[in-house]
Design a protein that fits this description.
With 437 residues, the chain is of the alpha/beta class. It has 22 helices and eight strands. The two termini are 40 Å apart.
């Protein structure tokens, strides 16, 4: 580890990685993954992670890459990976099998078009955000939903996001007096912050600047995870390579990458390299220097370098769901530890394994009801806590749970920005207004 957490680790020794399919030989048939899987109990269409992962994987080969198309009903939550006692990469084995289905042309034209559309949030954002009111009406009106179902098989009840009235990068470029400092970090904002939730990026910049960091926001593009999840590996690799080109020179200059989207940071760290078998020296260097924002803040706290004095109290009792892709980082609960610093804030952690959305999984008409059934225990928990809003690190999870429960959701970084005294936006602003500050 570098002397300071904001200094990139350049002493990484790249090493050879083997395809994830080779981990199937570690399977001891204990069935722990089967009992933990949130999808298998709610549908007969998915026979379970052990069958689709290590067992079916033994029969896949170039001529018959996927003997069972039910692998497409895995939602990629990675719960199976987290509970496997021997380290079988079940979710990644399933993801690569799904890619074989797509590459071999076994997906209907309409579904392939649908999957390619919803897997490109950057493209949708570039077209939709400049005309946000019209685009939001088309996406959320009964008229728009009817045609989305008929043309693309997008579920009418899917909790699609709303385009923001401004782009995050535009705000960052135009705001007055950004902090100039010798301590610098690179912010990877992701598509959700750029086009749908600019307020999350603003809060992240404010928190980092409050701790003395100049925030660099270089060119970047979609992390590629939606494409990976839909089996479009060639397009996803192009995105990943582009991000490496955009970001690697900053790492080589000694800066680390910090992100607020748990799925984006997991993709840069792990998912893209593993699913694509993409382990160039630069890819591994980028992965070693990418941090979730609360992972980064926790390192600062442990080093005695996080500003903790003078935090404003936030007297709220809120539900918090740590999303699957956050738990897949295997970091513990950094967000909980940081939120615990805020006076008078009570956080009740969800024990539900998955919200069900699986990125774009819950948007698909044939899978939406499955995603809702998977998320039901979590939805019940949110309603039992009955807070004025709730907290989650993942954007697609926030949108899905909010749509299912009617409870507004925020990113945990917004709470810390408010505790530092910054003016906040969105649902938290409404609640803080009620509190009188």
């Amino acid at each position: 580890m570098a002397k300071n957490i904001w200094e990139a680790r350049l002493d990484i020794e790249p090493h050879e990685h083997k395809p994830v399919e080779l981990t199937l030989d570690r399977c001891i048939k204990c069935n722990i993954c089967v009992t933990a899987c949130p999808v298998m109990p709610v549908t007969d269409l998915f026979p379970g992670p052990k069958y689709e992962g290590p067992q079916a994987g033994r029969f896949r080969h170039d001529e018959q890459p996927s003997p069972d198309h039910s692998v497409d009903y895995c939602n990629g939550c990675r719960v199976c990976n987290m509970v496997c006692p021997t380290g079988v990469r079940i979710a990644e084995i399933n993801g690569r099998a799904r890619a074989h289905i797509v590459q071999s042309g076994q997906t209907s034209l309409r579904r392939k078009l649908r999957n390619n559309l919803i897997a490109r949030p950057e493209m949708m954002g570039r077209f939709g955000q400049p005309v946000a009111p019209l685009a939001n009406w088309l996406l959320h009106s009964g008229f728009g939903r009817f045609f989305a179902k008929q043309l693309f098989e997008i579920a009418p009840g899917a909790s699609l996001p709303k385009f923001s009235g401004e782009r995050f990068r535009q705000w960052a470029k135009q705001r007055p007096n950004p902090l100039q400092s010798s301590r610098k970090v690179v912010y990877f904002h992701g598509c959700s912050t750029e086009y749908f939730e600019a307020r999350v990026g603003k809060a992240a910049v404010q928190v980092l600047e409050a701790n003395g960091f100049e925030v660099l926001i270089p060119p970047q593009n979609c992390c590629g995870l939606p494409l990976l999840s839909n089996g479009e590996f060639e397009a996803a690799q192009a995105y990943h390579e582009s991000n490496i080109r955009h970001l690697i020179e900053y790492v080589k200059q000694g800066y680390v990458i910090v992100g607020t989207s748990t799925s984006c940071t997991l993709t840069l760290k792990e998912e893209a390299p593993e699913l694509l078998s993409y382990y160039t020296d630069e890819a591994q260097l980028l992965a070693a220097n990418t941090y979730d924002i609360h992972e980064f803040l926790l390192y600062l706290l442990e080093a005695g370098q996080l500003k903790t004095e003078g935090l404003k109290p936030i007297p709220l009792r809120l539900a918090y769901h740590p999303p699957c892709q956050y738990r897949a980082h295997r970091l513990g609960r950094p967000s909980l530890e940081i939120m615990d610093l805020i006076p008078e804030l009570t956080i009740i952690e969800s024990q539900a394994p998955c919200c069900g959305v699986g990125g774009t999984y819950g948007y698909k008409a044939e899978k939406h009801e499955i995603s809702m059934a998977v998320g039901r225990p979590l939805f019940d928990f949110i309603q039992q806590v009955n807070g004025p809003l709730a907290v989650c690190d993942s954007e697609t999870c926030r949108w899905h749970i909010a749509g299912a429960t009617g409870t507004p959701f925020i990113h945990p970084i917004e709470l810390l920005a408010a505790a530092y005294g910054y003016e906040v936006e969105g649902p938290l602003k409404d609640v803080i207004g009620i509190l009188g500050y």
